[in-house]
Here is the input.
Amino acid sequence: MIKSFLLLTLLLITMIVFISLHDYTFTRKRSLQRLQALTELTHNAQLSLSVAYDEAQYNPTYPEMAHLKRMDFIYEQ
Amino acid sequence: MNSNFWNNAFWHFLTLQLFKERSKHLTVAIISILLLFLLSSVLFISSSIRFSLEETLEAQPDFVISRLQGGVAVPTPLSWSDELLNIYGITKVTPRVYGRYFFQPKEKSFLIVGVDFFEEQSQKNLEKLIKNIDLKSFLKDPQMLVGKGVKEYLAENFYKNEYKFLTPKGKFETIKIFKTLPKETQLIANDMIIMPIDLARNVLGYSEDEVTNISFNVPNPDEWNQINDKISALHYDLQIINKKEVKKSYQTLYNYKGGFFLILFLIVLMTFSLILYQRYNMVYSSEKRHIGLLRALGWSINDVLKLKFMETLIVIISSYIIGVFMAYVFVFILDAPLLKNIFLGGQNLQNSVEFIPVIDMATLSSIFLLYALPFITAVLIPVWRVSVSNPKEAML
Here is the structure.
């Protein structure tokens, strides 16, 4: 086996180790606790989508359909 | 594995040839890395958002009722919450006041949420959210807590410490910015403004006996259907939504977006495999001569196939690891600039979400198989066709 191949293998192993270490050491608990505290405080967990004012984030009446207002807008067009 | 395996002549020859012909493999590897990087990034973002939402949904109320008129939500009477309290099995009945406030000069909008800070539970949750917050000084004047996106946006528009809200009655309500919400909550709080519930009523134009909707919990899941029927019978214009429906709507949204990219990836991968197949099918004369030479030297068809298989496998594994690594760094360390707009939008306030690392091994393995199998097939079939031919003909 030549040196260049060994170097490539080492580089790939380093990448895997980096991903594993970052994933393992990330403080998920703190992030999730804060998200849950905010949800419990506001009783609301709407995703903060950066959408236009007239575009609803999801349709609460029929969750799998586009929002009624949005559909009206399409029909008007 | 023993040391002989790594030091044997086959491996030496294989690695030597791999690096000798690196320019040939490099083009294929770069295209593969780019494809894998894009697809893995999209799937990382999608699974991270889904994970965060599922975790927050755990803390969400089980049911929400609101009043509908002509299919459109209208203010819900506050008296409905007393009716709910009389039903056995229902707990935590909470009237909610929230709505979007349009910032006219720049056509942006914020989500205003009213909270009853005199409730003990709300105070505890606020302390959990913002450590060492002084509630007394917060409630002393009309003040609000704002998401990072709102804070930055207002500061850009010269509202550094306070903002004058125009109420539907035509009056101005000046509210001071008390604190910014923690950056970990950006996913749901970027455009959020939290203020005392009475203040929110003023800004959004609700009267004292009106709320946006009412949430409540039903701790026993076996009673969900029964309670649902009981509540639906209370009023004809009442709409009831449970947590499962909201969860389903988010999953549909992100499965759709992730799936869309997966289909695009499959199309591109098919095209890429066809190009590879074409390329190896018209095996260059030097390649053909090389295979013929190996066969003439006594290599069996199996040996030639093994050599080409291992060579391809190394290219595939290397491209895969590099592509996934780049995607990981891009999404979970650099927070996916540009690409996150596909999921979070970019028409309103800029959102700089910190994505929680979530590695879905099932999806990653599927990507690997989807990528590796057509690649190996596209290379090995033409090589096998040359190997089975007469070495003399191959070397011509």
Notes: Chain B touches chain A through 87 residues (CB under 8 Å). The first strand of chain B starts at residue 63 and ends at 69. The mean pLDDT of chain B is 85.
